[in-house]
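User: I've been trying to design a sequence by hand for this structure and keep getting stuck. Would you show me what you'd pick, starting by listing the structure so we're on the same page?

Assistant: Good idea, let's start from the same input. This is the structure you sent:
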């Protein structure tokens, strides 16, 4: 059984359903058609007794593996917002429903997170029962750099990282590698990239007594020698457990140590408004179920594009994408421009739902 999509390849071979994200020139950034195809595939395999497990990977320019998914198609999001295209709303509703589905498949779902794993790539992999990283993995939720927030369930899975790692990753958007991903609870094991083709082939050709045996087969490839990282966990907890964004940045800037200075410099480049929104998001997310978190994020993302009266000029997200991906001047004009000038009332407004509860686009989750 082969799919007709060219951007999402799918096939059942043996007892496993295989998915390959196939938009390598865009680092497999998710388009609306890709989201819809992934939803269709997973729903069709969820209750198929012949499919004992599901495996997902990404193609790179060089072929299979090497790049998982760099996030959502931000150029599409920018143009849709400027044009008033209703598919902008569809994209987030359907993507978040997909994120929820990956957590509730009822069978092994194995994500091969080789290469770039960011934003939407985290959304389609964090629900996996096995999250496999490699020495080439570069993982991040970098949304504050484009005036957005770590969505696709980020409020749920980041907030469940140890200590205050969730606040650190969400606010800075810093990239982490395999060992840190495992230490932070965002991956289950590391496999050397050169072993992935043989593992994939073994899944295609093997006969497995149960879904659990499939997972055990993959776990046998895990590298037991993955080094524990020097991940500054004590520093992260010390600073990112502080109550306010301004307090976090002030304390970092008071230090003369290189890590603190670099971290403070990173935060000063992010959207001041969205730093405040994100800190609130992560801390609210700790007490929410996945479904409630995704509903909160659906409210938030609509407000990112439509909260301010003139969205073309006043949306932090549209401005952030413009600076990074459209004009590429890397000089976003944030409003306000300083962390110290953020109005808490505007922060609070991001969490107001524009829909009655029963009419919420994700009410069915």
């Amino acid at each position: 059984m082969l799919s007709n999509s060219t951007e999402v390849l799918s096939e059942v071979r043996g007892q496993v359903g295989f998915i390959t994200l196939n938009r390598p020139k865009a680092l497999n950034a998710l388009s609306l058609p890709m989201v819809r195809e992934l939803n269709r595939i997973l729903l069709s395999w969820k209750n198929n007794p012949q499919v004992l497990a599901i495996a997902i990977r990404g193609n790179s320019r060089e072929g299979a593996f090497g790049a998982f998914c760099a996030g959502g198609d931000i150029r599409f999001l920018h143009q849709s917002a400027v044009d008033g295209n209703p598919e902008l709303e569809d994209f987030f509703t359907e993507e978040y429903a997909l994120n929820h589905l990956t957590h509730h498949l009822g069978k092994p779902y194995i994500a091969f997170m080789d290469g770039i794993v960011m934003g939407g790539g985290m959304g389609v992999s964090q629900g996996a029962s096995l999250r496999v990283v490699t020495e080439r993995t570069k993982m991040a939720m970098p949304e504050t750099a484009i005036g957005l927030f770590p969505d696709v369930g980020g409020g749920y899975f980041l907030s469940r990282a140890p200590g205050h790692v969730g606040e650190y990753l969400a606010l800075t958007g810093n990239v982490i590698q395999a060992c840190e991903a495992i230490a932070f609870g965002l991956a289950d094991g590391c496999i050397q990239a050169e072993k992935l083709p043989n593992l994939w082939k073994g899944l295609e050709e093997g006969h497995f007594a149960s879904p659990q045996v499939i997972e055990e087969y993959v776990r046998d490839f895990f590298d037991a020698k993955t080094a524990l990282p020097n991940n500054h966990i004590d520093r992260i907890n010390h600073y990112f457990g502080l109550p306010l964004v301004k307090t976090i940045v002030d304390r970092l800037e008071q230090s003369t140590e290189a890590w603190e200075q670099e971290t403070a410099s990173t935060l000063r480049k992010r959207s001041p408004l969205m730093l405040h929104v994100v800190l609130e998001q992560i801390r609210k997310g700790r007490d929410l179920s996945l479904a409630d978190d995704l509903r909160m994020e659906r409210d938030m993302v609509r407000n990112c594009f439509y909260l301010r009266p003139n969205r073309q000029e006043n949306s932090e997200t549209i401005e952030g994408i413009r600076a990074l991906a459209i004009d590429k001047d890397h000089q976003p004009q944030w409003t306000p421009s300083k962390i110290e000038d953020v109005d808490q009332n505007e922060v609070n407004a991001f969490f107001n739902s524009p829909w009655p509860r029963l009419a919420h686009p994700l009410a069915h989750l």
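That's my pick for every position. To get oriented when you compare it with your attempt: Residues 290-306 form the longest helix (17 residues). The CA atoms of residues 16 and 53 lie 5 Å apart.
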